[in-house]
Amino acid sequence: MANKDITVFGAHWCPDCRRSKQFLGEHQIPYQWKDIEDDEAAERFVIEKNNGKRIIPTIVFEDGSFLVEPTNAQLADKLGLKTKASRHHYELIVLGGGPAGLTAALYTAREAIDTLVIERAAFGSQSAGTEKLDNMPGFPDGIAGIDFSNRLRKQAERFGVELLQAQEVVRVHQNRHYHCVDTADGSHYSADALLIASGSRYKRLNVPGESDLIGAGVHFCATCDGPFYKGRHVAVIGGGNSATEESLLLTKFADRVTILVRGGQFKATQIIQESVLDNPKIDVLWHTEVKEFIGQDSKLNRLRIENNQKGDQSDLPIDGAFIFIGLTPNTGFLKDSGILLDRWGFVVTGHSVQHAIERPTGDTSRDPYLLETSIPGIFAAGDVRDTSTKQVVSAAGEGSTAALMVREYLKHI
Ligand SMILES: Cc1cc2nc3c(=O)[nH]c(=O)nc-3n(C[C@H](O)[C@H](O)[C@H](O)COP(=O)(O)OP(=O)(O)OC[C@H]3O[C@@H](n4cnc5c(N)ncnc54)[C@H](O)[C@@H]3O)c2cc1C
Q1: 169 lines ligand 1 (CB under 6 A)
Q2: Which residues fall within 8 angstroms of residue 338, CB to CB, at 6 or more apart?
Q3: When comparing pLDDT for 358 and 258, which is higher?
Q4: Residue 200 — φ and ψ, nearest 5°?
Q5: Which DSSP letter does residue 349 get?
Q6: Which residues contact 218 (CB under 8 A, 6 or more apart)?
Q7: Which ligand 1 atom is nearest residue 332's CA?
Q8: pTM above 0.70, yes or no
Q9: First and final CA of the chain: distance in angstroms?
Q10: Quick check: CB of 217 below 6 Å from ligand 1?
Q11: SS3 string of 93-154?
């Protein structure tokens, strides 16, 4: 199906319309949006399709067929996405199809370990959404995130990895020595080993303009995108360790870095605070919050900021803005799994497990393997892991390491 011909008829206030648009966005499927509140012809079309009723979202496909208020599973089915696995048991199930998960899967499948990857959105979702990966070894001109993800997916398919898309893992539990995975559609799978590669999300400010300008002046990674701002003026939003450390890094590229801090002081280690305050390229605006990201020609141009003590608003002209207000790991589905998480919810692995609890739960005969969690046979790699470095190359590297550790684990069971 030529997906570009999908039209979503809805209204800005409709939560199911937002869910459907989010689903299409996560799968990188282009569509046209028609708001029936602003478009009389669109409203008439919806009423005609629904026998006189005004039901939204009504989603029309290239072949003229349409779905009314579809669930995500119905949409996935219509779009031909594979959402059911061919079997119930695998040697390895990988949870998450980003660079860590897909790299691990292609390594294990290449060694004839039968491998299923379960992905809730599109493969490589975080890296796929990145306009350009400029720091990938072997790509001297950089590579578009979407191209990189498609290549990784194809490579995994070539080695026979089974890939499930649009399927969210909701629970991980044990049944005797099998590791069990439940998905949102009510399916149950089991495996000899699991790899958690579900990544994390950068926290956002959730103010107007932010989502629209991500990658076009709004960024979350100084190592990735700082070099685009040589000789420019950038803003850093946040006052913790990462905001201050990343500000120092940005001074290597930008001529001027303005840090916007909501409170009246940093929440960072003393030595970093001193380095920041001593740096002539950095200035700090205390008690300052961003209310809007404003673009010109589809590129960030200025920030609408507010002094939260005085209530004054003003515009700050800026070339780029970096948001460092924390990361949320995608580990909600591990809540009752017994897997050790750190205080922020990231998965603890290897030596850190030993420091925390001495031995993996249920197995006192050996120390945990590298990247193994507190439960023997369950591994973690990439951004979801505590102390990971939040880069594509390191996520892929951890994926390959985890695959080799899985191989070692499987030899002994
Ligand atoms: C805007 C932006 C720009 C970036 N730019 C760069 C850059 O230029 N260079 C660089 O090296 N890094 C960059 N990064 C960081 C990089 O994308 C990540 O470090 C990398 O993608 C981490 O890989 P991962 O496989 O660990 O996790 P992810 O890429 O986050 O993949 C995890 C996958 O798991 C899936 N998942 C989560 N929960 C579930 C569940 N319950 N069930 C099933 N699936 C689930 C997610 O949908 C996702 O596809 C950028 C990140 C962002 C957000």
Answers
A1: yes
A2: 174, 361, 374, 375
A3: 258
A4: -150, 170
A5: -
A6: 210, 293, 300, 320, 321, 323
A7: 41
A8: yes
A9: 45
A10: no
A11: EEECCCHHHHHHHHHHHHCCCCEEEECCCCCCHHHHCCCCECCCCCCCCCECHHHHHHHHHH
Q: How many CB atoms lie within 10 A of CB 130?
A: 23
Q: Is the CB of 133 under 6 A from ligand 1?
A: yes
**Assigned token pair, 275:** 């380095």
Q: Tell me the per-residue pLDDT of 158-216, one tens digit each, with 9 for 90 and over.
A: 999 999 988 999 999 999 889 999 999 899 999 999 999 999 999 999 999 998 888 88
Annotation marks residue 17 as catalytic: no
**How many Å lie between the centroid of ligand 1 and the Cα of residue 349?**
19
- Known active-site residue 221: yes
Check pLDDT > 70 for residue 368. yes
Are residues 226 and 252 in contact, defined by beta-carbon separation less than 8 angstroms?
yes
83 ligand 1 Cβ < 6 A: no
Supply 266's token pair: 């940093």
Buried b (16+ CB within 10 A) or exposed e, 178-192: ebbbbbbeeeebbbb
| Residue 295 near residue 320 (C-beta atoms within 8 A) | no
For this structure, is 180 an active site residue?
Answer: no
Sign of the torsion formed by the C-alpha atoms of 245, 246, 248 and 249:
positive
Find the catalytic residue in 192, 225, 319, 383.
Answer: 225
Q: Tell me the two tokens of residue 183.
A: 């998905």
- C-alpha 383 to ligand 1 mean position (Å): 7
Give 72's DSSP letter: H
How far is the centre of ligand 1, averaged over its atoms, from the C-alpha of 400 (Å)?
16
Ligand 1 centre from 127 Cα, in Å? Answer: 5
